[in-house]
User: Which sequence fits this backbone?
């Protein structure tokens, strides 16, 4: 029997039943613990100061607030000290690539954006505001976020379809002096690198000796390829629906042409399956299906990171027949590659030092810190910590803050 979940913010109802009229058309929603939890939303705003009488009111609002406004007008940097700006992130989406659901629109994306916001708070102590935009044009999204930016200390782009997401992030990074981070790209990449570092250590290998194949040339695949190259992997080939992305192909968009320019040193062509033959690492971020024969053709002691959700490209039971280390995107199998291991601490570290950007060095530092959390506890089923490991966020936060200072993007 489902546990009763009480949400008093919805017209005095308990939120435990999808039946009964509340004016919201919920009569056809079945009794379900998921709907019960979501009823009324998963977050609310709370004051950090009391407003219990006229003295409190005069300090928190008028007339006292005018003194603070005047001071900020004269010295704009004071906004970080006397508002919540330096502690809050905008979680921005257009609803075009939501989880595995695809283009479901801004309203339907809100449960996910709320979920992201509460994860920011729970795992990084960072306040976050969900913002779902009713536009998909690149120019409109960029201009909208630029105009919203004065209210926030950072921008987390979320669930925006590729290749538009690359252009949106690039232009926002150029125009804003606060951290901009597309989590579908970089959060996935950071956690993947951390797990790969530990898998290599566990099996007595160096990243520089490994050849990897990535299935999927979307947001996550491109970012993973970039961070692996930055980290010094021996070689990495990326595949899309037409096979290996290489410079000889004439059907590549600008993002894939750039990808081809720094990957595939071995000069591979052909299919995903042919690229996997002899490879040390398979990383799946495509949602496709990979035959067992292809996994069996990989090098001895290989690593299979099949991260499509809810159905991995290779079932873990199949992967374990051939691979030394297996990871997925699911919470019900060991070694979950979960973005929540990265983005709360990355933003917490960036905000802590009022960073103007999130650099490649900060991402690499986050991956190293995340890997080090479980460095003394490595096993085939434990190359990455749990999201509930209390050591994760502090370690990532400290590493990112230090890297920001080292790279000259910290402002305090």
Assistant:
């Amino acid at each position: 029997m489902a546990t009763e979940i009480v949400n008093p913010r919805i017209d005095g109802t308990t939120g435990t039943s999808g039946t009964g009229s509340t004016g919201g058309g919920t009569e056809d929603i079945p009794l379900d613990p998921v709907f019960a939890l979501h009823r009324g939303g998963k977050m609310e705003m709370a004051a950090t100061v009391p407003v219990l009488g006229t003295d409190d009111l005069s300090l928190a609002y008028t007339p006292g607030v005018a003194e603070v406004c005047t001071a900020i007008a004269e010295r704009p940097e004071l906004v970080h000290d006397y508002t919540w700006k330096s502690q809050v992130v905008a979680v921005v989406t257009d609803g075009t690539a939501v989880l595995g659901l695809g283009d479901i629109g801004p309203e339907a994306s809100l449960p996910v954006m709320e979920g992201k916001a509460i994860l920011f708070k729970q795992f990084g102590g960072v306040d976050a505001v969900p913002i779902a935009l009713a536009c998909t044009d690149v120019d409109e999204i960029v201009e909208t976020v630029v105009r919203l930016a004065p209210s926030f200390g950072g921008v987390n782009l979320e669930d925006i379809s590729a290749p538009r997401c690359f252009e949106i992030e690039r232009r926002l990074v150029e125009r804003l002096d606060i951290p901009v981070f597309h989590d579908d790209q970089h959060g996935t990449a950071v956690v993947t690198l951390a797990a790969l570092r530990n898998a290599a250590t566990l099996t007595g290998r160096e990243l520089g000796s490994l050849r990897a194949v990535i299935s999927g040339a979307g947001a996550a695949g491109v970012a993973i390829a970039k961070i692996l190259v930055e980290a010094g992997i021996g070689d990495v080939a990326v595949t899309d629906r037409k096979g290996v992305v290489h410079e000889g192909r004439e059907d590549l968009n600008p993002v894939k042409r750039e990808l081809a320019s720094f990957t595939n040193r071995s000069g591979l062509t052909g299919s995903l399956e042919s690229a996997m033959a002899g490879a040390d690492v398979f990383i799946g971020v495509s949602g496709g299906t990979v035959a067992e024969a292809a996994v069996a053709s990989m090098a001895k002691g290989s690593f299979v990171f099949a991260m499509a959700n809810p159905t991995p490209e290779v079932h873990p039971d199949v992967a374990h027949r051939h691979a030394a280390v297996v990871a997925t995107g699911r919470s019900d199998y060991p070694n979950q590659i979960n973005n929540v291991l990265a983005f709360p601490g990355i933003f917490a570290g960036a905000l802590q030092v009022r960073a103007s950007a999130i650099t490649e060095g900060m991402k690499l530092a986050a991956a190293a810190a995340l890997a080090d959390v479980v460095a003394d506890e490595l096993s085939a089923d434990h190359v990455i910590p749990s999201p509930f490991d209390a050591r994760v966020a502090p370690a990532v936060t400290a590493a990112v803050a230090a890297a920001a200072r080292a790279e000259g993007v910290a402002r305090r």
